[in-house]
Amino acid sequence: MSVTSGKTRPSLTQEILSHLGLANKTAAWGTLGTLRTFLSFSVDKDVQRLLRAIAGQGVDCSAIMGVLTNRTREQRQLICRAFQERTQQDLLKSLQAALSGNLERIVIALLQSAAQFDAQELRTALKNSGPAEDVALEILATRSASHLQECLMVYKQNFQVEAEEDIKSETSDILQELLLALAKGVRDRYSGIIDYNLVEQDVQALKQAEAPSTEGTWVLIFTQRNLEHLIRASVIKNTPLYFADKLHQALQDIKPNYQVLMRILISRSETDLLSIRAEFKKKFGKSLYSSLQDAVKGDCRSALLALCRGEDI
Fold it and tell me: Which PANTHER family does the annotation name (predicted)?
């Protein structure tokens, strides 16, 4: 997993670090996401569709999901503003009043800005009774620098405390050091030139950093070097494989971990979900779409399948 030369088993921190990175690949149309700009987008028509879906005798969940899972986050924000202007009502509150359970949680996640969504997920992870490292590392290590900066700003606005303060109070030791370093966002900017002397120095440093007492070396290199440098030092694996593993694990229990499924499918739907699907099929021999079909039950099933988008043959 990590850069090692002997048979020493890498520590948990090294395992985590070696799997994370920032997605940097694009397809011919500019994204490897499953969700792209809806070309026939009409904000007025979408507002009317949503009004009809919640104004009748029964809530038309299919119509609601048909709109929200086929529009980008930017288009959904336009719908929210237009709904407010035309009805003097908040779309999110209107849908929350009409829905419940996992479907309500999906709608909340879809209608929040990306920064609001991640800020809430990070806060929940840090304040939950369970371990915080999984979600916190996912958000702090796989989001772009600009997005992370916005997320931390929203965190402070919404919860009246810096995320760093919550990290200090809820974590300890090397995990705390890692999360604080990631939250500072001090990663080098890629200048277009690779310093191969520094790459070699880092490779050698990582080969020597096997004992737990040397994990600070991993933290420093992983949180400060730019992505192109880390790829050449073999510190990180591809991000889609990391998310494919998380999705597979979330589907293994008798009751799927819906929070993990929602967070990953929504947050990666406009960036690299196609790549995640490919890695999932390659590693587990079954498509993500089929796995969701088999494991997910209830009213949120169609929404998650819509975000996944399609079968991989």
Answer: ANNEXIN, ANNEXIN A9
**DSSP assigned state of 212:** G
Total Cβ atoms within 10 A of residue 130: 8
Residues of the chain with pLDDT under 50: 1-10, 12, 19, 22-30
* SS3 at position 20: coil
Two tokens, residue 209: 């950093």
Largest CA distance in the chain: 69
pLDDT at 15: 52
φ, ψ at 268 (rounded to 5°): -105, 0
Q: Provide the pLDDT for residue 111.
A: 96
- Between CA 151 and CA 149 the distance in angstroms is 5
Reported pTM:
0.83
CB 288 within 8 A of CB 273: no
The tokens for 281 are: 């099929």
Residue 12's φ and ψ, nearest 5 degrees, are -60, -40
d(CA 153, CA 184): 12
Would you say 36 and 72 are in contact if contact means Cβ atoms under 8 Å apart? yes
pLDDT value for 199 = 85
- Pick the closest to residue 296 from 264, 258, 239, 241 (CA basis): 258
- How many residues make up the chain in this entry? 313
The number of C-alpha atoms within 13 Å of 297 and in the hemisphere containing its C-beta is 3
The confidence score (pLDDT) of residue 210 equals 65
Per-residue tokens: 25 = 């690949």
**Token pair of 199 as six digits:** 């790459």
Taking the C-alpha atoms of residue 17 and residue 178, their distance in angstroms, rounded to an integer, is: 9
Instruction: Give the helix/strand (H/E) hosting 265.
Output: helix 258-267
The set of residues, in sequence order, having a beta carbon less than 8 Å from that of 79 and lying 6+ positions away, is: 43, 46, 47, 50, 67, 71, 91
User: Contact at 8 Å (CB) between 132 and 126?
Assistant: yes
Residue 223: closest CA among 145, 117, 166:
145
